[in-house]
Amino acid sequence: MSVMNFDDPRLTAIGLLTEVHAGLLGRFLPVLSAAGLSEIDFETVIRLARSPNQRLRMSDLAAQTGLSTSGVTRVVDRLEREGLVRREACSSDRRASYAALTDAGRERLEGVLPQHIQDIDDCFTGLLSESELSAFLDSLRKIRAVVRPCATAGAVEAEAPVRP
After folding, report:
1. How many independent structural domains does the chain possess?
2. Which domain holds residue 120?
3. pLDDT confidence bin for 91, thresholds 50/70/90
4. Which positions, given as ranges, span the membrane (predicted)?
5. Which residues pair with 87 in a beta bridge?
6. Torsion angle, CA of 112/117/118/122, rounded to 10 degrees?
């Protein structure tokens, strides 16, 4: 019979990550909620804001958020009703459409980001030195590349075709 090591550092790593995630959400959600944004609403509008032309193909938005295509459609429908996002047709593919951030969506983000960034700094990034933060971000990107390789789908604008 083998003896299991319950103090395995891999268990500690995932346990700490889970605890930190829960603690950070507990800190962030009241601020987002006060701005009328759920966690997925915020993730959607911030991803759009940080994307080329502040828009993403719906399929890329689904991949980035980890939502199904029907799930991202429901979120975008709700955000569109609130005027935070609009749909745009794709000129090169009639089957595809984009979700684009509206002026109202940008204004909502601008209203919530100062406090959100302050909270991030107070209980997360501000606790780390510049080199610790850089190493931490590199580590997170390495892990994300394995567990969510589609998390940056559409984040880099496709280059225009080169014409002779």
Report:
1. 1
2. 18-147
3. confident
4. none
5. 99
6. 140
Cβ atoms of residues 63 and 156 within 8 Å: no
Rounded to whole angstroms, the Cα distance separating 31 from 119 reads: 9
Beta partners for residue 57, in sequence order: 98
Q: Does residue 162 fall inside a structural domain?
A: no
The answer to the question of residue 8 being in a domain is: no
**CA dist., res. 56 & res. 54, Å (int):** 7
Report the pLDDT averaged over residues 2-31: 93
Helices (H), 35-158: 39-49, 58-65, 69-81, 103-123, 130-147
3-state secondary structure of 9: helix
User: Is position 9 within any domain?
Assistant: no
Q: Are 45 and 37 in contact (CB under 8 A)?
A: yes
Q: Read off the pLDDT of residues 29-80 as tens digits, 9 standing for 90 and up.
A: 999 999 999 999 999 999 999 999 999 999 999 999 999 999 999 999 999 9
Beta strands in 32-159 (DSSP E): 55-57, 85-89, 97-101
User: Global pTM?
Assistant: 0.85
Query: Please, which pLDDT band fits residue 157 given cuts at 50, 70 and 90?
Result: low
Please name every residue paired with 18 in a beta bridge, in sequence order, or none if there are none: none
